[in-house]
Amino acid sequence: MISGIYNLMDGSLTQDLRFETIANNIANSNTNGFKRDIISFNQTLDMQSNSKTDFSQGPVRYTGNELDIALGAQGFLKIQTPTGTRYTRDGALSINAEGFLVTGSGDQVLGENGPISVEGGTVSIGQDGQVSVDNEPADKLLIVGFDKPELLKKEGASCYSYQGENKEISKQTDAVVKQRYLEGSNVNPTQEMIEMIETYRAFESVEKAIQSIDGSTGKMINDYGQVPQ
Amino acid sequence: MLRGLWSAASGMAAQKLNIDVIANNLANVNTAGFKKSRTDFQDLMYQTVNEAGSETSTGEQVPVGIQIGMGTMPVDVHKVFIQGDFQETKNELDMAIEGKGFFKVLSGTEERYTRAGNFKLDSNGNIVTPNGDKLQPEMTVPTDTSSIKVNSDGTVTAFDSQGTGTALGTIEMYTFANPAGLYGCGHNLYQATDASGEAVSGTAGTEGVGTIAQGFLEVSNVDVVQEMVDMIMAQRAYEINSKAIKTADDMMSIVNNISR
Lengths: 229, 260
Prior knowledge:
A: eight-stranded antiparallel beta sheet
């Protein structure tokens, strides 16, 4: 009977994790290039659960800004951060004071020949990722794909690091780039709301079950063995 | 649950900022030379609850771990320097820049840059902004001038009533490596920052600088429809985040009521 309570406690903890994940998805419903997380549970003995990222494409919208890019369904931009190489799908780019193409957080976006200098002039980015300044080719965006996308680890600031081996990273040959567009968050508020309600109710029933076990345990201890009057 | 509560709170704070920026854009829908701002968001750091690759109790490897995100944060509010539309005013001191350049004006002793070309004359015949900041390089229009001609390359000529022209000088244009990094001073003025890079002077009409159109004004580049759509999105995102807070609150209340 008591072990039942422990199982239920595990259940309420996992619903807790699930709720936290949903809250994070909702908080990022307006974050460019954000990919929602899903917590899933295995009904094994050790209650192993895991979070996985849904890499489906977010809605693409027109912004008109020449430094905004949206990537097609596949591929990630490779960027250089102070802590190493990272990958992102956040296409709200900027130019820094040195004239290099950077992300919103100021990390250099890498092209096939390293950081891309776009100093002065009008920047145009072709469908294949070719970056040109005043119609002079500058470099081509390095867009990569992964053999095991599930090994991408979210680092915050819309960046991912790859936990697998380098040989599993390859150039995305079928990458499509749309200049003046941005990819929004792939969080669907309706879905998150429904999952939130589901989580809430699951949590509620777990707590009810705990109460009921507690009640019957209490009954057993206090009522059994009493001599009927 | 508390993490979820904070995530949702960060979402509400972010959307509030988003609304602030949108409201300012909408307020400036009729401001000459105004450039709209946009808020971009990023996800915050993640807490790894269960590392991918760790071993389970049955000796197997966990293929994917558990990462719980901590919400969102605004990463920047930046000016979007898309060209605004041109409005013909026929006023000879109205100038619109078609291209990326800026006018330089002297505000007190500070060098400021602007794209609002609604210039006026002060009592001494100086070409100034509506706030009285002198256009650089300074030029004085003679008192007997009947008309002023500004060419697309920035050369300014004053004509008297006999039709004799006097060259007053050339308006210089300035460009920045990263105009989005400029500091907005209000009054349609911008100041160079470390992020924007130094102002680079250039002649109107040369590559990448742009040309001057006399008798025109560049109107605000705020697109009302776009702002309205963004406002709806921001409001709904705010709302759904508040629902998450409510849910977290209810869940905690359930926990508090387990044992009665």
